[in-house]
């Protein structure tokens, strides 16, 4: 890790995905990042504050021109994390081709790219009883059982970027292996069973589960860029829950209806019939996985949500998804390339002042009232009083203040 | 960059389970009922020299009388809660394959038992400063078995890597008092010991072991000094622990007049 504070010019892939957009947002808040270029094949749902968006069709065919033209020195590759939030088989399959283009750009001797930050996944470890309760950066990636498509895709990505970093010594590599990112848009691998009327668990087992809030993952990526981290880091929220605890936090009805024996074989058969991710879901339900997040915390990174708090933020979105049959959220301010070009470059356009540092770091106050209400039970009395004072002085959301008063009266 | 040990996860005090899966409520209930009855009335356990178990910091306790189905590690944990000056808690450690059986996995996990995995034990000993107990079979205390089994035990490797004290604890009245005529193979390379009473009264004979009064004696701690040769130091500690347990158990058995009374 280097402490240099030189200004950086960063390119973020898959920026139109939810995770990608959050990473771009977190980088926009970083004063050491001079320029953020967001690229994707699709347009983002909403405009960025100061990042510039470039639409790259044909699997990043023209990424070399963008990197060279913008004098990019850091590439943040979000594709793997975006393909897992929620799990998307087509995006995972497409990882290989995009990786080739990105590695060509980073590996070119004339390239100005000095650092590559890859948002990978803890699914690299697979599942199995040979894994420790908490996998760490030192845990051999070969320790887990199974050869699921998810694990293969992540392994393919990581092995190629590691090989490139070995070949090109001046390229610093940082791999962030993340737990399943969760948030209002979804609950990671657990979401694949969301449409079942009853969530099935394996009889006689209650494995460990750890996730990370999508905002924390985005902040971790920005932290890796800002702090110039090198090496592999695991990203997961504090708190390793039992699966039943996690399902309770998600308000999901569950029952141990899967037999303890033969679930792996059944999952492999179902996988062959075309059902996606069944092997990984079987691994999750049977073995689970805890994650040791301390190496990243030792670099100065602080998580804002525990696993339980992260899962609590899934609930309102999940109810909406089940009711409407879609996870898409609408925005009153959708992205339009022509409008963005006018607002940014026309001499007639009035540009707003950049946000202050306080505005950038609103933290918990940035959450909407539903998300805050879900978090209230986990706050102690002093935190509740501080939040009430903040609400009273600022946003003044009456429902929230009334709920805090009720909780304080009961303590 | 600070040490990873300084960044343990935050504790959510309103949760019943800790990050290792132990249920505070269930552990307390078991302690007040099952283990209390077993400790005071059934096994009549007595722990000698409890001060030899460190008052603070991590330590690995190696007790003889272990094996599949043996309660000795849990009895040592109970004895420490009862007799140690600091009333320290300890986590029994078992083979990971034992936690691979439906039902058993959840029950042992909730009771605070952990799987013997070097990374996990290292974290408990070095970073969380906890006590971990492992059991070894009394008939496996000879040098050859110690070099093969005890030296290869993940918990011992972790203790040597963490450079925490290793405390041998002698248990008199466990498998040393019960003649084993056969061992019934179980899934996961486990074996259930069958005593002399099996041909006459079947599985009930397993209870023949139970009423023996159990004496536990903590021996002086061995502090590993791995320096350059961690593997060699692990072998040395394993041999030292096995020999001390063997000799002390021999002395204790000679002192005993009856397996039923002290």
Characteristics:
heterodimer, A: 411 residues, alpha/beta, 7-stranded parallel sheet, 18 helices, 15 strands, B: 262 residues, 7-stranded mixed sheet, two-stranded antiparallel ribbon, 9 helices, 9 strands, globular
SSE topology sketch:
The complex is a heterodimer of chains A (411) and B (262).
Chain A (H helix, E strand, L loop, with lengths): L7 E5 L5 H11 L4 E8 L11 E4 L7 H7 L4 E4 L1 H5 L5 H5 L1 H13 L7 E7 L12 E2 L13 H19 L4 E7 L1 E3 L16 E4 L5 E2 L1 E3 H13 L4 E5 L5 E2 H7 L4 E5 L4 H10 L5 H9 L3 E2 L2 H4 L9 H6 L1 H11 L12 H9 L11 H4 L8 H7 L5 H13 L4 H13 L1
Parallel strand pairs in A: 1-2, 1-4, 2-3, 4-5, 5-7, 6-15, 7-12, 8-11, 9-14
Antiparallel strand pairs in A: 10-13
Chain B lengths: L23 H9 L1 H9 L3 E3 L10 E6 L7 H12 L6 E5 L9 H7 L3 E2 L2 H10 L3 E6 L6 H8 L3 H9 L3 E7 L7 E7 L3 E6 L2 H4 L13 E4 L11 H26 L7
Parallel strand pairs in B: 1-9, 2-5, 2-6, 3-4, 3-5
Antiparallel strand pairs in B: 6-9, 7-8
**Main β-sheet, spatial strand arrangement of chain B:** 1-9-6-2-5-3-4
The major sheet of chain B is characterized as: 7 strands, mixed
Shape of chain B: globular
Strand content of chain B: 15-25%
Any low-confidence stretches of chain B, pLDDT <50, length ≥5?
Answer: none
Global Rg of chain B: 18 Å
**Secondary structure category of chain B:** alpha/beta
* Coarse shape of chain A: globular
Strand order across the largest sheet of chain A: 3-2-1-4-5-7-12
Number of continuous helical runs of chain A: 18
State the total count of DSSP E strands of chain A. Answer: 15
| Spans where pLDDT lies below 50 across 5 or more residues of chain A | none
Strand content of chain A: 15-25%
The chain pair forming the largest interface, with residue counts per chain, is:
A-B, 37 and 35 residues
Number of strands of chain B: 9
CA gyration radius of chain A, whole angstroms:
22 Å
Q: In which range does the helix fraction of chain A lie?
A: 40-55%
The N- to C-terminal Cα distance of chain A equals 45 Å
Mean pLDDT of chain B: 88
